[in-house]
Every structure is written in C-alpha cells, then in structure tokens.
Specification:
Number of helices: 5
Radius of gyration: 16 Å
Strand content: under 5%
Structural class: mainly alpha
CATH architecture: Up-down Bundle
Amino acid sequence: MTDRIDALKTLMTRLIDSREGYRESLDHVESPHIREIFEGFLARRDRNASEIRAYLTREGHSVDADGSLLGAAHRTFVGLKDAVTAADDAATLAEVVRGENVLLDAYDEALTASGGTDPEYMFLKEQHASLEQAIAQLETRRDLAA
C-alpha cells in the first residue's frame, strides 16, 4: 500500500502537470467554447493543488510546486507533434481526456492510501467526483471539436 503522504504528493504533482497541460492546450485550440472549458479546468487544478498543498503543509511536510519531469517531457512531445502535424481541437481534446484519466488514477491511489477514514480526506472525495464529472463533460463535448 502506498503511503498516504507519498500518494498526496504524487497527486499534487499530477495536478500541477495537468494545470500546465491546460496552459499549453490553450495555445492549441481554436474553439472559444473549448478554451473556456480548459480555462475553468485550469483554475480548478490550481484550487485542488492549493488545497492539497495546504493540507500537506499543515501536516508538516515540504511540498514542491513544480510538476514532474515526465509531465514536462510529455508537454514537449505534444508541442513537437503539433509543430509537425497540424494541431486540431479534436486531437487536443482527446489528449486532454487521456490525461484526465491518468489524474483520476492518482486520485484513486490517494483515496486508497487514506483508508477512507481520515476526515481530512473529504476534500479528496469531492475533488475526485468533480474530476469524474469533468471527464464526462469532455467526452460529451467531443462534438465541439469536430
């Protein structure tokens, strides 16, 4: 079983990666409606990461405000791919859905590590539910990118 603090730190890193991914995605979408959705998701990632950072700090743990090297490498790859092949909204949206599912896995790990009994983890359950709704919203909005 993953240590709950390690799981939270991993989740926070994934949230930062997600936030940066949205920042980059904003440069690659043309649909004003999709841009608006991404801006909302970016703001949500900031709030969620801040909430986890505050919890970890209260618990006496140091936190890194940077994303992962893997996340940075992935964003670089996506940028290179977009430079070679014309980026389109559908491809960007599909990549975002994939990334959101990776983030959902990190939430699942953090929730499992918490044992579901710590009252401080109610915010994780709320964030998890919000992410599931966001993924459903993205998947139903693929028509916007067509």
